[in-house]
Write a structure and sequence with these properties.
This protein is an alpha/beta fold and 316 residues long. The protein is 35% helix and 25% strand. It contains nine helices and 15 strands. It has a nine-stranded mixed beta sheet with strand order 14-13-12-11-7-10-9-8-15. It has a six-stranded parallel beta sheet with strand order 3-2-1-4-5-6, with helices on both faces. Helix 5 packs antiparallel against helix 9 and helix 7 packs across helix 9. The protein is globular. The termini are far apart.
Length: 316
Amino acid sequence: MNKLGVAVIGIGFWGKNHVRVFSELPETELKAVCDVNRERAEAIAAQYKVDAYTDSKKLLRRKDIQAVSICTYTTTHAVEAMRAIRVGKDALVEKPIASTVREAKRIVNSAERQNTLLMVGFIERFYSGVQVVKSRVDKEEIGTLVSATSKRVSEWPERIGDVGVVKDTAIHDIDIMRYIFDEDPTAVFAKIGNLRYSKLEDYAQIMLAFEGGKTAFVEANWLTPYKTRSLVVTGSRAILNLNYISQEITMETAGQSTTPRHVWQEPLKLELQHFANCVLNNRKPTVTGMDGLKALQIAEAAFKSSKQNKAVKLKL
C-alpha cells in the first residue's frame, strides 16, 4: 500500500493530536512537524522520530510530503494554507478556515485554481452519534424536520487567544445545522457580546432560518461552570437528543423513548483517515473548503445581526 507522506503545521493543544493520529494510521507516514516554538517542535519530533521545523516554507519544499494538516492559530490559517496550496500540497485546515471571509475566499479559490484538495476540520461531522442523527433525519424516521437546537457551553478555555466563542466554538454548530438540514440558511438573527471578558466575545445566541419555516438555534458561551455539548433535532413524529460528550442518543416519539446503539470510534482518527483516503484516491472530501467558507460567512453575518439588532438575509 502506498502511504501518504504527511506533516503537521502547528503542534500545540490540538495539533499534537493530529501528529499522534497520523503516526497511527495505516494510510499515512508522518514525515515532519512544524511549530514556531522550537523546543516544542523538537520534542514532538523526537518523540515520533520525524524531522522538526520552525519555518513551514522549508518543510513545504520537501517532495516526500504530499499533504499537510494546518493547526496553527486562526489568524495564521490563511498564510499557512496559501503557502501549502501554492506549492501543490493538499491541505486540511482546522476550523475556522480563516479569520475573515475575504481570507477564506482566497484559500478556496486558490485551491480550486491549483487543483489541490482542501478540507476543513469540522470534526463533529465524524462523530458516530451525528451520523446516526443525520441518517434518521434523511430517512424521515422523525417525520418532517422542524427545528434543531444546539448547546455548546463551558468555562473559558485556556488554549484560546485569537478568536472568540463564535468563530472558535459556535461555528461547529453552524456547520452541523447546514449538514443536518442539508441546505443553507436564508437568514440569521443573533445576540453576541461580552459578559466577563473584554477582548473577545464570550457568549452568542444565533438563530438560523431555513426554507419552509424550519429554524435552528445555536447557543454557545465560555461562561458556565461545566461543559455541555448537546444537539436536539425535532421532527413531526419524533425528537432526537444527542449528547456529544457521552455520544448517547435518545429518540422520543408519542409512545416510547428508545436509545439507538452505535459503535464509537475516535472522530479525529475517522476525520484524518478520510482526508488521507481522499488524497490517495483523488476523491472529494465530505467537508470541503466551501463548507468552511459558508460557515464563516454565517458567523460574520451573525456579528452583523447582533450589531444592527435585526435579522440579516443570507446569500451564500
